[in-house]
Amino acid sequence: MNIEMKGIHKSFGTNQVLKGVDFELKEGEVHALMGENGAGKSTLMNILVGLHKLDEGTIIVDGKETYFDNPGEAENRGLAFIHQELNIWPEMTVLENLFIGRELNLPYGLLDTRKMKALAREQLQRLSVDLPLSKDAGTCSVGQQQMIEIAKALMTNAKVIVMDEPTAALTEREIVKLFEVIKSLKAEGVSIVYISHRMEEIFAICDRITVMRDGITVDTTEIPATNFDEVLRKMVGRELTERYPKRNPKPSELILEVNKISRRGLFENVSFQVRAGEIVGFSGLMGAGRTEIMRAIFGLDKLDSGEIKLRGKKIQIRRPEDAVRHGIGFITEDRKDEGLVLDFSIRENMALPNLFSFTSKGFISSRKEREFVDSLVKRLQVKTQSAETPARSLSGGNQQKVVIAKWIGIGPSLLILDEPTRGVDVGAKREIYQLMNELTDRGVAIIMVSSELPEVLGMSDRIIVVHEGKIGGELSSHEATQEQIMTLATGGQ
Question: Which residue, of 44, 53, 324, 490, has the fewest CB within 10 Å?
Fold first, then answer.
């Protein structure tokens, strides 16, 4: 399928998102679409599949002017869209999610469950995913939910697949498998639009790249004819001299001691320490237990055994309120469902954990709250017209900044960051890294859970690798390599 989008314009109210974008997709190519958060990439693809109506411009599919009224119509014509924000029905099973709206029926209206299960197992096996089809999708990890979405798209026999940050929640092993599937789809003539902020992936899997900036098309070029620095320059319109800012760690007092904590079936006898002024990176394969460990430390889940000490004193954290009272902040991996109240404004989200700071005798000081929020918006360079803007309307990168801001506001002594740059563009990533450096310079202790090995190596002072719910090993930033981390993550020595 060949697609041409010419002179595409789109505004939401007074906000002009697309200002005459051109984009071309050839049959059987993997075409990268890159740009900072808010550049208009997802909006352009939403227009293609009929989720949004364009204001001006032309869409040509296989030589014929074509416009879809809704995503269902586009899917029937062979266009599938794997969204960055997952469209999972949590109360439904894996099988039900895979076939929702496309159920197979026997005579008399009965479901052909046997055939559905066979097709589902075939696609999950193709992705090397081992999931019980009867499991509720809401109990799956974010990475598993991502693989369900990818499998669902593959089952439509699509001619064009739009993948918006498809690897954001996947481990290195799963990414390798996904790339194998992409190559086989390409060989079958399937076209793929690949939206990602991970530059290594773009150069590993894509044929051409289109760069967008501020709602316009900057350039389209063949991958072999460009390089990392040139793409970066086109994306942000400026030079980014270093991908990871230099760190000058000065670890001081012991902030957190975790001694032999366990939660049945998830992790066992986990012990580690974090000092003021350092970043301790946590790495491991999906399902290893990294996130579960952090949730338990923050009081979201109950510990079966073990103890937690803060500044040498044993503390009891039974719920998140206890953690916040002790100066612990937690930026979860799922900003959409756990990190933000999407219908609340930026102001309301940032103020939530900090209401005690500007409340007196049961009344909130609007002036103090406004000053507090405005300073955080400015400090983190959140792109918005107003602090009253709903969090839902922000780009992924700016949503992440709001999540980080609300926890910075409590003045934490320990900050847990679970996938802090997932779905965030290169420029915003660097801003987050610089902010992490600022915080550690002020004596904040940081735990960073990340599935991106370059990020773990680039920002961590020490790296703890988790394997099947246990600490597989610890490496200093000076000696660590991707190979060493993966060896420990898979149970090696």
Answer: 53
